[in-house]
Amino acid sequence: MKKSLIALAVAGAMTAPMIAQADATLYGSFRIGLQKVDNGDTGVDDQSSRVGIKGDVDLGLDGTKGIFHWEAQANNAQGVDQSRALSTRLQYIGAQGDWGKALIGKQYHPHYLLISGPTNIFNPGDGGYGERFNLGNSALGKTGHFMKRTESTIAYYSPKMNGFQVIGGVVMATDNDDNNNSVDETADAINIAGTYSANGVTVSASYGTIETANTPGAEMQTDVWGLAGKYQLDALELMAKYEDKETETGSTENSDERVWELAARYTMGATSVYGRYADYEDKVGNTDLEQWGLGVQQKLGKGRVFAEYIDNDSDDTNEDRAVLGYRVDF
Fold first, then answer.
1. Are strands 321-329 and 303-313 parallel, antiparallel or unpaired?
2. Of 263, 266, 259, 298, nearest in space to 281 by CA
3. 154-178 residue pLDDT tens
4. What 3-state class would DSSP assign to 308?
5. 3-state SS of the chain: helix, strand, coil percent to 5?
6. Which 3 state secondary structure label does DSSP give 215?
7. CB 123 within 8 A of CB 299
8. Alpha carbons 200 and 299: distance in angstroms, whole number
9. How far apart (Å, rounded) are the C-alpha atoms in residues 80 and 57?
């Protein structure tokens, strides 16, 4: 034990000068809530806590700097394998300048940033917070998650030109990462999106395609596209999105899903009230679901307390939930 502590101290002393040379920020968001689930127990549960470090370094290039970002979940939820309590959420490096930004590693894709993310206004808990409506979280294998966060990703962000920006992402997974035993020398997923902002209005569009199998005659391909909009008028924010996803294996249609959401938030000083309505349909699976949620939040400096309720109109159990939470950001 003493040797481990000495080794840790030596490592800290050696890395301190390197950290000092970088403009780095340590940050985190710890979120704990007293949560009640329908047909379930009431208990204290994690509400998507995370911790990370990000910053930039001097590359010695005029107008260009290196950037880095690492973030891990800090989940103490009941039933969560504590060996994964600090599993990585983000891990990428890149460069940024007047020419735009280029990133490589595990990162958010433009579809999630521009389409799925804006209506995600709740402090999420472990399940039940609209996860079935987030098409990017569908269980399609590792490369299928590219609509949110994925390893082996290369992305480029153009500079903003009169409020317009283009973002593109490509997943280049190895054979062991795309859930099949075949040789795949092509991109596993491609996502291209654009966004425009002016006078309090933001509109975005995205298209992506995913290859999740490469067995001859049984290739699985998923196409996703979406539209999103946001309007801010002083203290009022209005948000909307539409997503469409189709999956085929060979010539067989596996799913034909679509979801649309409306969300609103009104902020009065340190107090916010917000709500969301979502409608989900899978034409192949004959599934039609609705969801609505309401919340109120009070900021306390860099902390906040919140009360939220999510109702899912489905045959599933343990879906509806209420939470009274406390969150501290740094």
1. antiparallel
2. 259
3. 999 999 999 999 999 998 865 544 4
4. strand
5. 10, 60, 30
6. coil
7. no
8. 24
9. 36
